[in-house]
Amino acid sequence: MTQTLLHQILDYANRADPYPIYEELRRTPVHHDTDGPYVISTYYEIRSLLHDPRLSSDARNLASGGADPLAESASEESALPPSFLRLDPPEHDRLRRMTNRHFGPPHSPHRVDAMRPELHDIVGGLIDGLGDPGRIDLVEEFSYPFPVTVICRLLGIPREDEARFHTWADTLAASLDPDPDADPAERGKGTVEARMQLGMYLAGLIEERRKNPGDDMLSQLATAEGQDGPMTTMELLSTAALLLIAGHETTVNLITNGMLTLLRNPDVLQRLRAEPRLAVPIVEELLRFEPPVQLLPGRTALADIEVRGVTIPKGSTLWLVLASGNRDPQRFENPDRFDPDRPDVQHLGLGSGIHSCFGAPLARLEAQLALSELARRLEKPRLLEDPPPYRQNAVLRGPRHLRIACDGIRP
Amino acid sequence: MVSIAVDLNRCQGYAQCAFLAPEIFTMHGDEALLYNPDADDALREKLAQAAAACPVQAILVDAVDEPTEVVSDAR
Amino acid sequence: MLGDGALEQLKREGRIVVVGASLAGLRAAETLRAKGFVGSLTMIGDEPCEPYDRPPLSKGVLLGRARADRTALPRLRSVDATWRLGVPATGLDMAARRVRLADGDEVPYDRLLIATGVRARPWPREEEAELDGVFVLRTREEGSALARRLDEGPKRVLVIGGGFAGSEVASACRERGLPVTVAERGAAPLVGALGGVVAAVAADLQREHGVDLRCGVMVTALEGDASGRVRAAHLSDGSTVETDVVVVSLGALRNTEWLSGSGLGAGPRGIACDAGCRAFDIRGIVTDDIYAAGDVARCPHPLFGYQFLSLEHWGNAVAQAGIAAHNMLSESIDRLPHMDVPAFWSSQFGVNIKSVGVPSMATEILISQGSLDSRRFVGVYGYQGRVIGAVSFDHGRWLPFYQELIEKTAPFPPQFATVDRHPDGLRPVDADFPDPSVPSHGPTVTLSGYSPADRRITFTPAH
């Protein structure tokens, strides 16, 4: 029996290489099967829709059974209200602004920049600690622990609690997967449970930070008052959960996809070893070539919207397939070629418009540093299996393990 | 020194440059960007990071190291 | 036209002269080289310095965060030109194809690009304009002089004219803690560009930031002390403002005087050219060897009823220079029209203001997202049932959507729901422009094509 293209995207069998499906998808830039979402796969249309105020990101507007990015249930019993990722302006703008106050410019312009030495130390420590060079699981030993350590330090979450929230974060990330065949009730239950647990855990931490504030973001969010006033406790919990999960589940894939791509393109890896500065264009090209968030499945049309001659009726759910737009030959020459020398990489890998990736600058620094240091220090690295086994998730797509070997590790 | 200009029609205030090279780029309010059009050579690397990270590719950086020779008497 | 390899010959050994060595001139020169022009290229500029960027002069420079003499424009590629800087062009001989320079030199050309831009309109009374402490702001030298004076900590700065430039100066002064008075002839600052509804927000912003804003008044005289230093300004309402720095911000004059008598269609409103940037002569016949770009050019815009628009916008200078350079080196069939949707920005009092389209043509406005009260909003402008412009206050990420509406000549008022629609955005109101310039009713033109690379004009004749 022939699967619909939608099922093919979600089918785990296609996880290692979804790009041929996207290519087929782009033949119908606005793809729609009965009752399914409207799937947009071409660059210019996705970019337009990311700036279209007729699209809502508010989870409460989603038709039931719709997808649920970065793990928030819209259901009534949900333990936490939606974070700004799943809100529209003006609530979105207010919460994002308040969060940004402690993360970036204009109020905290040096925060991310000042983390450079710390990031360097963490990367160095993890590479020093790699086990048998003949059998490294890069995910377990490097690309997962690195961003988790960073986000924990940034938020002020004890690193040793990682084992506890890791499970919740995974459950919540899995709930992102817009699997139309899964029993929504069953899945919803697990999600709500995980959110509740995570919420209670964070609530405890925040309580503590209120008493003994540190210089971490959680303390600052819990105690500071800006022009927008303080966050409510529920807003604070949602925001903290969002940052923790997003910092957890995306950068790991960017780094792993990055090393996988470099090992598949040894000439580029060689160049990076000789010239660490190449990490900057490499990461931008990676965000185009293998974006860690493949698609945005949770937008709703607030009005009839015409796209390439197709009218998407009010109330419809839209999927914006960022990873497909990034391979659109109308926009990028030789889109399936990994080419860090591209003169104009205006990719969709971090989204665009008001919901563009909040942690983007940190993700960029982490990935640049991780890849340049891995390239510099691993001697003759090679893949032990290709393709590697992938995680189930079709949205936050990346290898579950990346088994590599090398001849040794340089100091 | 290296010359910079930002196409502020393209700029949408994503602030990636201000995160990555705060010595050169600063946000003035939530969306407006201020920048030093003449960055120190020591900041070239950070400038390259900032320019590459701009989601709308609005940062223009000197690509030519060529002094303008003025002909004042070309008769 | 240029048949028989004449175009190839032009590219190989032709002489192209660019008069005006600022943003448009430099970008045109770069485009010419990028498109394979290897002949001789001469850049003529009246200022003694290499091309520099002007927007920082009214922002970072006045705030003391950048230096006026350090805003050189980045070079995107080598232009390998002969630079004649500090020597203004004084005349044009169209028949002999020569540009005359102030030093008596004559520079021959096969193709000429005029990008002489504008200069600040000076205070009309010369003896008052020459008082110490009276400034205009357009050039590097003027920016540097004003910045130096602000560093000295004047008692009060009077800004005459509450347009974008004047408002930015006032904003920078307030940020530096200097007392500022703004005298605006209209009902509010920015009213000419954005209409009264939005201008009221701009006025509130100014007052909140401590500007002594006086609207509906004119400055009738500037008064100096015995040493020739400005000490006060007299206003049409009978009041007097004691001040030691006056910034005259009354718009710009087009640098076209050097063309008078040349036979080119140039005058106080600029140089008339076709949509492909070819200049008209005074007979209304288009030349084929003289082009204009940037602030000095006026050119018919397909999207706005083929009205001749003259735009003092940074983005317009860049885009138009690219089109002019391309067309100079192209057969007629390969030429491109300049049809970028006008766009500009301004930052003042901590708010980022952006605009697309031509708001000043509009009669109505609708606040489609956000609210005027919050100073975070998008306003859509309508004219004759079409969306013709949009403005955003700290809402710039939405503007590309509105630009598409303009390009598609979408109906006004927009009928659809959006996120963040407030009660005051449910129906359009009079945009309240002081003196609307009314374009004639004409055919409808829309831009079509899915990517910027295949932009086309679709023409629907009026019936």
Automatic annotation (TrEMBL), chain A:
Residues 69-83 have a biased composition (Low complexity). SUPFAM superfamilies: Cytochrome P450. The keyword Cell inner membrane does not apply. Residues 60-89 are annotated as: Disordered. Keywords: Heme, Iron, Metal-binding, Monooxygenase, Oxidoreductase. GO terms for molecular function: heme binding; iron ion binding; monooxygenase activity; oxidoreductase activity, acting on paired donors, with incorporation or reduction of molecular oxygen. Coiled coil: none annotated. It holds the Pfam family p450. It comes from the Bacteria. PANTHER family: CYTOCHROME P450 YJIB-RELATED (PTHR46696:SF1), P450, PUTATIVE (EUROFUNG)-RELATED (PTHR46696). Belongs to the cytochrome P450 family. This is Cytochrome P450. It comes from Streptomyces nymphaeiformis.
Automatic annotation (TrEMBL), chain B:
Ferredoxins are iron-sulfur proteins that transfer electrons in a wide variety of metabolic reactions. PANTHER family: FERREDOXIN. It holds the Pfam family Fer4_13. Keywords: 3Fe-4S, Electron transport, Iron, Iron-sulfur, Metal-binding, Transport. One of its GO terms (molecular function) is iron ion binding. Transmembrane segments: none annotated. InterPro entries: 3Fe4S_ferredoxin (IPR001080), Fe-S_cluster_ET (IPR051269). It comes from the Bacteria. This is Ferredoxin. Its cofactor is [3Fe-4S] cluster.
